[in-house]
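Model it.
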Amino acid sequence: MKKIILAIDGMTCSACSNGLEKYLNKQEGVSAASVNLVMANALVEYDEKILDQAKIEKFVEEAGFKSLGLFTDEKLETKRKSEKVKFIIFTVLAIILLYVSMGHMIGLPTPDIINMHTNAINYTIVILVLTIAFLVYGFDIIKNGYKNLIHGSPNMDTLVGIGVISSMLYSLYSTYMIINGNHMYVENLYFESAAIVIYFIKLGRYIDGISKDKTKDAIKNLVKITPNHATLLVDGKEKRVTLDEIKKGDTVVCKPGEKIAVDGEIISGKAHLDETFITGESKPANKTVGEKVIAGSINYDGYIEYKAEKIGKESTISEIVRLVVEATNTKAPIAKIADKVSGYFVPIVIIIAIITFIAYLVLGNNLAVAVTTFVTVLVVACPCSLGLATPLAIVVSEGLCAKNGILVKKSETLENARKVNTIIFDKTGTLTYGKLKISEIINYKDEENLLQLVGSIEAKSTHPISKAFTDYLEENAIEKLEVEDFNDISGYGIIGKVKNEEFILGNAKILDKYGIQNTHLEDEEKLAQNGNSIIYVVKNKEIVAMVGVNDIIRDNTKEVIKELKENNIKTIMLTGDNEKTANKIAGILKIEKVIANVVPSEKAKVAKELKEKNRYVMMCGDGINDSPALASADIGVSVNSGTDIAMDSSDVILTGNNLYSIIKLIKISKKTVRNIKQNLFWAFFYNSLMIPIAIGFLKPFGISINPMIASLAMVFSSITVILNALRLSTMKLEKKGNGI
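Modeled.
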């Protein structure tokens, strides 16, 4: 299966996006399609043996919309400039049209040649020509409404299209009567209503577009964060190149004040790098040989040379942009409810409008009044605000999350994070930094060059503990020995041969696995009491050494655990480490429940058991060893993912590795759902209030509206929802102690 994100033109409400989504999902070869109204794009997963981009774009066209090709900011920017020019032109035409048709009502001087009373035919032709221009301007509305109607998915455009065409047909009949000498029909012209309805809808969409653009700032800033040029080191000489010229394996130079051009690994030098844009941490990171650098980071003070590893679409920045865009294309459960309601709402409104039209005629009103009321009901009920209520809030929240170093892969996760009542934490690399240091060594057999031997084997492993040994070798300039027959036994340890002798390294479980007797329990107790993780070194079925390594607890972890407990969120530590070491860390952090000596598969089992007890479980781990548990939990949160974002199996990635981001995520989730509910309330409240007024129930009290007022009211309804959704971007997240 292949994924593609297309930019879509012509969507205006949730009924539009919902209708296109349904149509795409019906097509053979499409395994899944998700359409995003706010981002104006469609994420389509398809079988490339059956379909290609051209065929998918044809489906889009058949559904009544237009594909602008692959989703990029540049195409949208060109489209926005064109829309701005058109909008200015038609604003001028709208003023002229209103002046000609209604100027006399407020005492404005009207040239006699186009006066409706003295020159009815001239007057009629002028407003007809101006209205035709607006019909051309709004032809996309009428076309989309018609196509969605015949596909059985009537939407907002369908309502407007029916209303505009009804006004036009009746006005054209009146025009025919005027031309034939019956000038009294000049009072029954509704050309300006049709034109101004289109104008106000375009006005609403123009305002929507500006507001939606503001929600994409986080994504745009990420795209622009990398430099345009870089310096390569070629045969010892520096060469200035564009980013497109950099290839994997090239040596890139970065000097103080410059930005890192591509993701890579430092091979020479050291520097403090500002990675705020990716981690959310304001403190510069100290980077040296062997450490990863991320494109867009700013070099504060050092000269470094690094090897290019990830370029173009493989880069961390590109992955983040892709994840954020894809996340906004997934639908939260509450959004699906709104889509379903919109699907029923539009046909019901059409039925109400038809019944109203017939009722007015039956009650003895003339055709002009019946048509006007029919059009007013259709226009005032357009579900613009309903369509924006959920997706706009989701996009704003996605941007807020990205800005705070939280990458949410699915909108469903953003909605459900508020339900979390149990969080499982991995210990090494999650609650702690995973930056272990060798603290104690007990060498029972006086094994020669013990740390060189152990370090050489550990260098083949990806476990955080192995770094303590490789760091020791580098710091002491000790050469690594050649290792053969290396084997990583997940959750237990590693095996490797050095100089034809096999060594087993691991935790207490590896002793049981290979039937090795532990005759050094007192030493084990002593090391564990000092908070060490213990590495047993086994040779010829006998323990030849024990190495204790210590870890450092992450900054503010204690405060995070405290705040979670204050909000009745249960915390559990899961670790493959021994029980004594785990309990020591848990005691410092005041975590009440500890499950030690577990392998990755057992961590997943714990998550499943908690879910069976009706707990809503979040698992927080390093994204590699903890992947089974991350997948088993309701929400999987990965830390330590900086440059391997795409490889994580988690639902959420904390790019800053700051555990307080979990609390931020829960806060954002709660505020987002509250905001969506407010938006939906105002959208439904507006329609519930305005439809009876449009029908004419309040006419006995002197309250009534016409199609133009109805379209203007619809604009204000959308603006209310937009402004409410944008409030999310001002949310305060750093405040602690006041509850989540």
